[in-house]
Design a protein that fits this description.
The structure is a single chain. The protein is an alpha/beta fold and about 250 residues long. It has a single domain, classed as Alpha-Beta Complex (Spore Coat Polysaccharide Biosynthesis Protein SpsA, Chain A). Helix content is about 25%, strand content about 25%. Keywords: Nucleotidyltransferase, Transferase.
Length: about 250
């Protein structure tokens, strides 16, 4: 198993609260979010980890300076491209075919949730939370474990859960993934998410969705997301994001 963490974006929706630092470097109570994530993967025996950096890359590398073996790639166009371009800049890592997780680096996962993800052997499979519907950011509709619809604009009965920012892919699927990735970059589709590689397959081949409802996760897009993480870990933050144990 290998893991690609995407951390190139600026995070404009919350950046004013973070003193301009990358979202994955927020303090979650005694350590940074990205440190927690790396240590969690190491605990599961996963050490083949790469990150794509962009905005304030030096802050992330300084945060992880004591963690050996992480491969870094850089998206110099992070301010004018989306995450599909970041994935393309890590193509040397992804082309060394193995079972692969691709994950947004600003996502917090409780350990049991990661265990569920690692136990899932469907491919390609995206992970969703069926307990979050109306408040969901990026919404999925899935039926019988297959993705049917997707998008921020979904409403009502078209929402069965919120995408949590992680996909898992088998070694056998990765050549197809890379072919689609190269094709989309060649046709200048660099303003879309890496997940669009999978979305273009919907209706043509099975794209699975695995439910993670009941287990805790949060993506640091808004201050409310950050506060949810702190509460889960037994901390609170004041308006300057100083963290205190509850």
């Amino acid at each position: 198993m290998k893991v690609l963490l995407l951390a190139a974006g600026r995070g404009t929706r919350i950046s004013r609260y973070l003193a301009g630092n990358p979202k994955c470097t927020v303090d979650i109570g005694g350590q940074k979010l990205i440190q927690y994530t790396i240590e969690l993967f190491h605990k599961k025996g996963i050490t083949d980890i790469a990150m794509v950096l962009g905005y304030r890359a030096e802050v992330i590398q300084e945060t992880l300076k004591d963690y050996e073996g992480i491969r870094y790639f850089y998206n110099p166009f992070f301010d004018v491209t989306n995450s599909i371009a970041s994935a393309w800049f890590a193509k040397d890592f992804l082309s060394q075919y193995d079972d692969t997780l691709i994950m947004n680096a600003d996502v917090y996962l409780e350990e049991t949730l990661l265990d569920r993800i690692l136990e899932c052997h469907k491919s390609p499979v995206m992970f969703a939370d069926g307990t979050r519907k109306e408040e969901a950011d990026y919404k999925y509709k899935y039926e019988n474990g297959l993705l049917v619809k997707y998008g921020k604009e979904l409403t009502g009965s078209d929402i069965t859960g919120e995408y949590i920012g992680i996909g898992r892919f088998s070694k056998d699927f990765m050549p197809e993934f890379m072919e689609k990735l190269d094709g989309m970059i060649r046709t200048q589709q660099h303003s879309v998410w890496w997940e669009n590689i999978l979305y273009e397959m919907v209706g043509k081949r099975p794209v699975y969705v695995e439910e993670m409802d009941g287990l805790f996760w949060a993506e640091v897009d808004y201050v409310e997301d950050y506060e949810r993480i702190l509460r889960f870990r037994g901390y609170k933050a004041d308006f300057s994001l100083n963290v205190e144990k509850i």
